[in-house]
Amino acid sequence: MHYRSREVVQVAREIGYDCDVLVIGGGIVGLSTAYAITRAAPGTRVTVLEKERGPARHQTGRNSGVIHSGIYYRPGSLKARYAVRGAAEMIKFCTEYDIPHAVTGKLIVATERAELPRLHALVQRGRENGIPVRELGAAQIAEYEPEVRGLAAIHVGTTGVCDFVEVARQLADASGAEIRYGAQVVRIDRRAGVGVAVLTGAGDVVRARVLVNCAGLYCDEIARMTGDEPGMRIVPFRGEYYELARPGLVRGLVYPVPDPAFPFLGVHLTRGIDGGVHIGPNAVPALAREGYGWGVVRLREVGVAVAWPGSWRIARRHWRYGAGELRRSVSKGAFAGAVRRLLPAIEEGDLVPAVAGVRAQAVLRDGTLVDDFLIREGERAVHVLNAPSPAATASLPIGREVGRRALAVLGAG
What we know:
- By secondary structure, the protein is an alpha+beta fold.
- It has 11 helices and 22 strands.
- The chain has helices at residues 2-14, 28-40, 78-96, 116-128, 141-144, 164-175, 219-226, 299-307, 309-330, 332-340, 395-412; strands at 19-24, 46-50, 66-67, 101-103, 106-110, 133-137, 152-156, 160-162, 178-181, 185-191, 195-200, 205-213, 232-239, 242-244, 253-256, 268-271, 277-280, 284-285, 351-353, 357-364, 374-378, 381-386.
- Strand 21 (374-378) and strand 22 (381-386) form a beta hairpin.
- The radius of gyration is 22 Å and the shape is globular.
């Protein structure tokens, strides 16, 4: 593979390619892919196009900052394999590059009897995934979190927190790739046997042998620009956060027992690297792919979501759940009430609005919310079409997998 890649690189240079692999998207997955390619095949020219003025401006930089253990994910799934491996690698990476991080452990707390079977199922799932789990009775919860109440809980010792934005910056620096910021893709021309030419909003043309689509919130649109039908659409869900005005109420990370019907973990409490405690997120439909508030509306993007049959099927199937999330979005009191199930001492005045995020949720035509990583290949292209949580945690092994596929396409060219 290394010898074949070097041959292809030389041919590419002779016929005037600007790079061998062009990565679209400067979030943590795109930058990890660039990092992986330059390490697996030294001499491969990689360019990253990012429409913002810096890295990690969207999903990577707008989340809880949690290094996930992998306890939630179905054994054998990509999420389970990548999260368990990725958590250990992320801690090692942060240590090597002196990036702020901490292994804090976390509690998953059952507050109702109906949640107890799901909590026990998580214990089994954790063991199948090779994750150390300690089961706790109601009285033992206070050993970790004196202010938290529940019927039972589990403690997951391998969970941590870090600064993912700093991780992304370090990946960009260490990759040796050319990173072009402020480079929005407006057109892609792919020709059989020739390669891919990408036009940016500034009028620049970048020619490459292989395109890697890590565009996150816009990955389906980039796939269609390339000429590949992805078979899904991104339906954006906004996650709204508060910061806890009395951070002393929480020592570490506290989560509810998640509902297995949804790829969301529920409103949780997270003490970050800076010592502050974030509470959230909920999950409400966003009116734009970068709709970080109700006032941000992009009619074309709303139209794309509404026109996709899967969106209507989600609405019919899960409208009760959605109604509850919307209520917590518009009512601070309702949000506080949800948190109070875990943390009875909380008051509405303890919640200070914080920066929101938007999740790029892939939805299939039949209304299925894609729960696992979704990576597909087209001619001279590799598309990352769903990179849900724990994508930041698992970014190093994901980057290697996407990079491996890109180099295989490059070598086959």
